[in-house]
User: Which sequence fits this backbone?
């Protein structure tokens, strides 16, 4: 039957040949990309289209189910602004941010130079944290339920184990109410964040608070999804840090309190065993109840 | 090394064991779903998470690339409203709507009853199109560049080939400027749409216009994506129709003009060969230059 003189609509007209679904459909969509498509974008979109189509066929996704997903995405966009990224959070609760973090770090660690390395920052990093003096605190108006901690250690060359001087450590953490300073009018500017530079001995040290678990914002589509998946919104207690030194690969990571709840079921799946640390009792320091010794090894870029 | 007394951050700490990336990560995310998750949702999300993660690993998706996607999704939501669904359009240009249409239709055609069938309507369907008399026109204030067409045919039982009386045909199409009446202040309410019911002979017939190609809205993220993929935004000329009759499976489809541009590269991938029809010269009818004879076979539900 010619395709150009078909004058009858038959019941099977929206069905297709060989397989359960049209076996050529996906390659048809992929081949629509024109010759001027950027090669990397072509690679990414080819894989994305293939996996999205395979997903739809694998679960026999219906129009109603797909439209529910579209609605969720549109509402995520509508509630996003400079202070909130609900699209990102939707990705986070299905583990995508944590996965691309891993991928990006791995890519960077395999690169011969540091230029291609991408910083993995999370939504609450600020570029303008103040440089503080070694031994100072990052906690101001410290809440009564906070356990003050002295965090310290040595930054070393991963190969030689020699101390690295003038390495910059950028630290940020949420307060005991689960909020970062830019989310919380009651915290002063730059509370619980700061930069420190190591001395000749590679040592760093400052006062902070023991981190506490907190929920990701759950009043939007990401929270709805968590609810439908019978999951809680909490993240285990963690501290963010970036360590930078010219000639070394930068490190961006989070460290997790070994005694925290939710280590095994972080709502955004960022915990790795090697990043779990133990807070110890601190002796002879009236300013801190706890201490955390944490050494940092940097890999040279050449 | 125990996971709870690790006090050194080493360069390989965000890398993982066996494979290039953590081989257990995806199953960890999937297993986070709680016991109260709806079984169908669990099936859908398990497949979605697996395919999204496989996609990210397959192309080594970076944080920057992922964030560009998040930004596109957030902006799609922000420009969506009651008259525009940019999230849907983003799906359309990667073929997802057309694919879930096919899946839903196939599911419905395999169902033993009509109750589970889902209507595939597209964004411009209206439930309240007026019932018109057989032989009337759906085109008012017909533009000068329109080619008036008499569309007609017989609705038959797919098995017996006997005429089906009182079948309802719901038709809608865009004007020659590419706009449906609800997108265009210059078209009167319900222009180029209407419902018709077949008589005893199963026949239907009405005047409409030959459809013309038009672009999907390309001033948002979907248009950006089309541009980056070196693709045009045009859809080939088509007419939408739904045919409903108690005791038969409803049909929702689009038919395409065989002489239209873009048949081989519909921007939303809805063309199927069997839905391509040929408009012919009409003789002896001063009201129409063209005619389209189109018979419709309905499958009984029992």
Assistant:
């Amino acid at each position: 039957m010619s395709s150009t003189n078909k004058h009858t609509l038959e019941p099977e007209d929206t069905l297709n040949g060989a397989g359960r679904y049209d076996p050529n459909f996906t390659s048809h969509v992929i081949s629509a990309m024109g010759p001027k498509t950027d090669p990397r974008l072509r690679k990414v979109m080819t894989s994305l289209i293939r996996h999205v189509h395979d997903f739809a066929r694998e679960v026999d996704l219906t129009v109603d189910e797909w439209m529910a997903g579209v609605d969720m995405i549109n509402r995520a966009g509508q509630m996003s602004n400079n202070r909130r990224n609900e699209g990102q959070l939707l990705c986070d609760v299905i583990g995508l941010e944590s996965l691309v973090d891993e991928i990006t770090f791995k890519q960077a660690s395999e690169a011969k130079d540091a230029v291609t390395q991408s910083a993995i920052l999370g939504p609450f990093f600020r570029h303008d944290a103040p440089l503080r003096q070694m031994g100072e605190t990052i906690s101001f108006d410290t809440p009564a339920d906070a356990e003050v901690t002295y965090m310290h250690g040595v930054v070393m060359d991963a190969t030689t184990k020699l101390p690295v001087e003038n390495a910059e450590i950028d630290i940020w953490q949420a307060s005991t109410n689960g909020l970062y300073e830019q989310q919380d009018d009651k915290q002063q500017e730059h509370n619980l964040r700061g930069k420190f530079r190591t001395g000749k001995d590679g040592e760093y040290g400052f006062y902070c608070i023991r981190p506490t678990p907190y929920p990701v914002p759950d009043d939007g589509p990401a929270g709805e999804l968590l609810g439908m998946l019978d999951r809680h919104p909490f993240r285990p207690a963690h501290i963010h840090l970036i360590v930078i030194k010219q000639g070394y690969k930068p490190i961006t990571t989070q460290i997790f309190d070994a005694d925290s709840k939710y280590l095994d079921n972080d709502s955004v799946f960022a915990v790795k065993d090697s990043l779990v640390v133990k807070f110890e009792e601190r002796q002879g320091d009236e300013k801190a109840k706890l201490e955390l010794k944490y050494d940092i090894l940097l890999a040279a870029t050449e």
Remarks:
- Residues 1-6, 12-18, 112-119 of chain A have pLDDT under 50 and may be disordered.
- Residues 14-87 of chain A form one domain.
- The CA atoms of residues 30 and 46 of chain A lie 6 Å apart.
